[in-house]
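Below is a filled-in request sheet from our internal design queue. Each sheet records the structural input a requester submitted and the sequence that came back. We keep these sheets so that new team members can see what a complete request looks like end to end.

REQUESTER: design group, bay 2
PRIORITY: normal
MODE: inverse folding
CHAIN LENGTH: 534
BACKBONE (tokenized):
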């Protein structure tokens, strides 16, 4: 009976590998090269123990702990301990994102497009498609974990031995496998690929927040997050393997649950079915703008709550920064105190840049929804009516611009609402809000690039995510790894004034806004001229 359910799983797995013959190498090479490049950079940048101990002191503050995780081995900060502390969480999140996107593509997205219905009409088992997708994506995680683990070990860097390197790769692979299993469950709960991705990313964001709050103030809370589990492997320090076993074991249970749910549900249905809509649409909903906003309402509300909580979580640690900095002389030396600003205020630009780039994700999703609807042949229905292309694209553009303003505002409000409670004497809302709003032109550049790609190269719209990832890496790691200045200048976020430490400079923001307008105009022209078939 069981063999009948999984019939031809191997054949389907080979088909999935064939379909992802471009995606898989891109993920493998990008994550492996980034990991190796950072490890080699650490070796050159922090060659002496004195250099490493100096950077270890900067990593002890609550804001850094919330961002990169609790540090292990800070008292003897070897290159390996530095690599695991500063890169493991960041790379694990990338593994999770890869797993979420790949497993959704081969489960719920294929079901939406009718591919699974066609496959089930052939001699295959009821669970073969889901089983094949899980096997393939888990296999990718295992392969990538081995490549990174073995690759780090052969770099022959002091403090990065064979066992620690293999554990580093295993921690990344275990994180990916856990989110493969979790996304497979969500693919059974949701009726759409959009819902599956939304639930999965919400779970990833929640896992990050729980770990951040737990690492800063309540260690027990970190054990409710899978990201907290893998960090407790204490790679290159104590090399504990049991957190990896815990993570993979939990993933195995989730896989069984996903297969069971898949076996008992009808094709194209979900356990969280969409509610039936009203019999008659309102006047606002009958407009392209109203329809666009309605289609994205749930996801945008979830993101709004998420960025507010993210801002509040960072704000909750602001009260500890000043006393922390006062106790550590090297921090004052590294931060080069600016007259008139507290050390806490000097950390605001770093927090704002990270939150601004995270807030860019829902902005991009709001804009790229247009090309997603086009690929599913739903825009043809709208364009066959009295709706112009410029009005259709303009609706998505307006929503994305409004979302950029709302998301940045919520990060500032979240940071301020928590910061005013924990900082003695409070903190200026105007200062925080201004530090957030200066990132609007940079976000508009990202919107402009998205509009341009939709207008002239709709098949290449995924490149905008590569550009956002590049921006995150150069801004987040640029100072740490001492990237050349030109790399930061390739990102729009590299031109934003670092308020409140720096003076307000309107010129770069004006130039960014003008470039954004040019990109948007070019994108609209391209969209009006091209064929709607992608």
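RETURNED SEQUENCE:
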């Amino acid at each position: 009976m069981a063999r009948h359910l999984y019939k031809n799983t191997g054949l389907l797995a080979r088909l999935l590998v064939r379909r992802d013959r471009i995606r898989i190498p891109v993920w493998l090479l990008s994550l492996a090269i980034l990991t190796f490049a950072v490890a080699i950079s650490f070796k050159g940048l922090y060659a002496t123990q004195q250099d490493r101990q100096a950077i270890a002191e900067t990593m002890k503050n609550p804001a850094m702990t919330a961002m990169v995780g609790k540090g292990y081995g800070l008292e003897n900060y070897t290159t390996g301990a530095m690599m695991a502390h500063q890169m493991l969480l960041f790379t694990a999140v990338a593994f999770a994102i890869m797993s979420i996107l790949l497993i959704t593509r081969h489960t719920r997205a294929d079901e939406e497009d009718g591919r699974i219905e066609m496959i089930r009409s052939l001699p295959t088992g009821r669970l073969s498609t889901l089983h094949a997708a899980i096997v393939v994506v888990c296999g990718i995680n295992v392969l990538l974990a081995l490549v990174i683990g073995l690759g780090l070990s052969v770099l022959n860097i002091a403090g990065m031995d064979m066992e620690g390197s293999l554990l580093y790769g295993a921690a990344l692979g275990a994180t990916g496998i856990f989110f493969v299993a979790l996304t497979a469950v969500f693919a059974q709960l949701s009726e759409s690929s959009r819902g599956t991705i939304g639930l999965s990313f919400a779970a990833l964001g929640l896992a990050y927040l729980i770990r951040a709050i737990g690492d800063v103030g309540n260690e027990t809370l970190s054990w409710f997050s899978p990201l907290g589990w893998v960090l407790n492997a204490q790679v290159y320090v104590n090399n504990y393997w049991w957190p990896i076993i815990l993570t993979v074991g939990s993933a195995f249970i989730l896989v069984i649950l996903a297969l069971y749910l898949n076996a008992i549900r009808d094709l194209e249905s979900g356990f969280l079915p969409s509610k039936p809509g009203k019999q008659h649409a309102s006047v606002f909903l009958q407009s392209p703008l109203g329809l666009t906003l309605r289609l994205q309402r749930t996801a945008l509300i979830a993101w709004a709550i998420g960025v507010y909580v993210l801002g509040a979580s960072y704000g909750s640690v602001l009260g500890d920064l000043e006393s922390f900095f006062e106790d550590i002389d090297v921090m004052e030396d590294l931060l080069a105190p600016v007259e008139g600003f507290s050390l806490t205020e000097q950390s605001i630009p770093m927090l704002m840049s990270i939150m601004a780039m995270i807030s860019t994700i829902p902005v991009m999703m709001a804009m790229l929804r247009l090309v997603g609807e086009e690929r599913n042949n739903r825009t043809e229905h709208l364009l066959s009516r009295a709706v112009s292309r410029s009005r259709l694209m303009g609706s998505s553009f307006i929503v994305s611009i409004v979302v950029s303003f709302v998301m940045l505002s919520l990060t500032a409000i979240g940071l301020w609402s928590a910061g005013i409670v924990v900082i003695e004497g409070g903190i200026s809302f105007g200062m925080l809000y201004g530090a957030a709003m200066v990132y609007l032109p940079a976000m508009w550049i990202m919107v402009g690039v998205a509009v341009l790609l939709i207008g002239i190269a709709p098949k290449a719209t995924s490149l905008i995510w590569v550009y956002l990832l590049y921006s995150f890496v150069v801004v987040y790691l640029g100072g740490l790894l001492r990237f050349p200045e030109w790399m930061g200048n390739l990102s729009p976020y590299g031109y934003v004034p670092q308020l409140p430490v720096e003076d307000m400079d309107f010129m770069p923001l004006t130039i960014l806004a003008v470039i954004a307008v040019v990109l948007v105009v070019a994108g609209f022209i391209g969209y009006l001229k091209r064929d709607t078939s992608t």
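SHEET NOTES:
- Residues 229 and 243 are 5 Å apart (CA to CA).
- The chain has a mean pLDDT of 86.
FILED BY: M.R.
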